[in-house]
Amino acid sequence: MAQNLVIVESPTKATTIKSFLGSGYKVIACQGHIRDLPKSTLGVDVENDFEPKYINIRGKGELIAQLKKEARAADRVFLASDPDREGEAISWHLYQVLKLEEKGGGRISFNEITKPAVKNAIANPRKIDMALVDSQQTRRILDRILGYKLSPLLWKNVQNGLSAGRVQSVATRLIVDREREIAAFVPEEYWTLSVLLTTPQGKDFLARFHGTSQKKLSLPDGESCDKILESLKGARYSVKKITSTTKTKNPPPPFTTSQLQQEAFKRLGFQSKRTMRIAQSLYEGMSLGKHEEHGLITYMRTDSLRISAEAQESAKETILAKYGDKFYPAKPRVYKSKGSSQDAHEAIRPTDPAKTPESLKEVLSAEQYRLYKLIWDRFMASQMASAKIDVQNVDIEAECPDGKKYRFKAGGEAIRFHGFLKVYGEWKEEDDEEKMPVGKLPALKEEDELAEKELLSKQNFTQPPRRYNEASLVDALEEKGIGRPSTYAPTIETIINRGYVSRDKKQFVPTRLGEVTNDIMEKHFTTVVDYEFTANLEKKLDDIAESKESYKLVLSDFYAEFKRLLDGAEVALSETGKVQLPHEELDVLCPNCGKKMIVKTGRFGKFAACPAYPECKTTMTLDRDGKVAPPAPKEEDPVVEGMTCEICGGPVVLKKGRFGEFYACKDYPKCRFTRQKARKIGVACPKCGGDIVEKHSRKSTFYGCDNYPKCDFSLWDEPTGKTCPECGSLLVKKKNGTVLCSSKECKYKEN
């Protein structure tokens, strides 16, 4: 039987796909890229048409050897990495490294991991799309040039460990610009006026002041509001006009990647990284019991709104069966993607709408269930009938004793037909005090006399724009055409990890480091952080993918401008000197020298440190709120009975260290006596008759005499307690279970 090899990216995906194919197929995972640009150098020959210098990724040598072996043994090799530019590039690298020119098979891709989709892809392999590969290579080379040329400049002039990137620098600028808007915002005063009225039937409702019947009046200050209130004393209220309409509310389209990230943050509180991780697991598939493996959603990196005819038909069957005929529209809904979107994939949807969230609750984790339900609800709603909402607007006239007439307005809504709202209701970020409460108004008719119950006036001030949160930042990046759906989550993670922004109650706030770095970028690398330029560069990557643009020309044009800016920045920054960043002081004194502790950033995030470093090396941990975490209560080390310090004769205690428990003088570290507490293995030392114990070094576990340093006997392998029948030395057991003689001269080995 012919042996076919299918190479996918992840082991989970491999397991799912293997369940669809027969015994003639072997499915293995390459675990992402196997080849990339080197980390130690630029890896791009800018003088020779930007030729990339790829190397095999360190640590993947054993995997590549296995892939080569499997590829040589196979009759056909199918490259089944993800159906996007990155996946196409992974397949191309596999093709090059595994030398697949002579092999049958080819590139296969599928938008969903289901048996029909995989079988169809196997039956219709294609060649690698080099336009997609070139697009990915262009992005990779652009990012490498920016990162490797800009980052050293930032290290030299700001601080070590910084980085700059095509998308992350623009995302940081968005957050910094918003903070500047907030700082520059000047609030303006205004007043609102409402009246609580009672109908002839004794029902209360609220109406908002509008002005007169001819025009709307604003209330800019308390004085203008007081004049209206004075005039309204003793006023008679009546219904002048009632307008009733029924509006149609259409469902939202199915999810794209950015919309999924935004809604998951708003409704579920998931950060983008978490959303994409869960979505990946739903896409790659899982066991549904009874030997059934199944991918539950389509590919989760897409900006297309297209839905296949088969998916629409399946959705129709589910809607009709679950909700009834009236909940399905007269004809299937078609959504138009944005002009800049790539339409290679469908929107994100369940692979089988008949698999309801409730039916899968037992096999999904809590977070998988919540995200799958969000995707299922949104897709089903997108295919359902529109909602019908009755809207009522009421004009109320107030006749004042002084002859003036003022107009108040009230509004109400009531759902006539739920339609898609049956599945996917509206979500509001927070109540807006400026909006009237929407609900059903009490029964009213024109000329009804109304009784005033209470006049309500309130001073307000205009509010500054809100800081970006995870959802609004993704929305802004998408709206400006910056980056791709797949880049939003890693971009946000990068700017936080680099210390450019921080989270404050789910909102992004630029740090001083972020502001300083952004100032340098805006001043010296205007093009790099320009919104329009970055969006245009993204469009050029799309054009390369569609064979409309030469990738070498795009790189050449970009590098010429970038090199000019880089040369100018190096000269200018060498004259100004290194930026001195102010340290954030804490209201905590160093316990050793009394100075105020400051906040620093290290490999594992922020921590408190003494400003007198390196003279004083005191550090403290910070909690999630940036406060110094109280030290954990220190337990007293237990005193070891019957044991005294070999140096000073004092008591000995049992301590815990990196390599397990050890004995130490109670006066440690003044007295430096220590001895490791070792596990006895029940074997006598052949040199002195003492106990052999298990010990630990920085490199590994070893075995030695407990009388050390008086007896220096030691072995790397575990003694068995038996002696060699040929030479009488100890027999030892290696980690793989092999038993052999401990003597290097003796070759004895047990079978």
Summarize the structure.
The chain is α+β, with helices and mostly antiparallel strands and 751 residues long. It is globular, with a radius of gyration of 35 Å.
Description of the structure:
It is a single chain. With 751 residues, this protein is of the alpha+beta class. Helices cover 31% and strands 24% of the residues. The protein contains 17 helices and 33 strands. The strands form 10 sheets. It has a 6-stranded antiparallel β-barrel. A 4-stranded parallel beta sheet has the order 2-1-7-8, sandwiched between helices. The protein has a 4-stranded antiparallel beta sheet with strand order 19-20-21-22, with no helix packed on it. Helix 5 (130-157) runs parallel beside helix 17. The longest helix is centred in the first third of the chain and has 28 residues, at 130-157. The protein is globular.
Task: Please tag this protein with its features.
17 helices; six-stranded antiparallel β-barrel; alpha+beta; four-stranded parallel sheet; 751 residues
What is the alpha-carbon Rg in Å?
A: 35 Å
Mean of the pLDDT scores? 89
Low-confidence stretches: 430-437
Q: What is the assembly state of the chains in this entry?
A: single chain
Largest sheet: 6 strands, antiparallel, barrel
Question: Quick one: overall form?
Answer: globular
Portion in strands: 15-25%
Helical percentage: 25-40%
Strand order of the largest sheet: 9-10-15-14-11-16
Count of alpha and pi helical runs: 17
Based on DSSP secondary structure assignment, what is the total number of beta strands? 33
SS-based structural class? alpha+beta
Please report the distance between the alpha carbons of the first and last residues: 37 Å
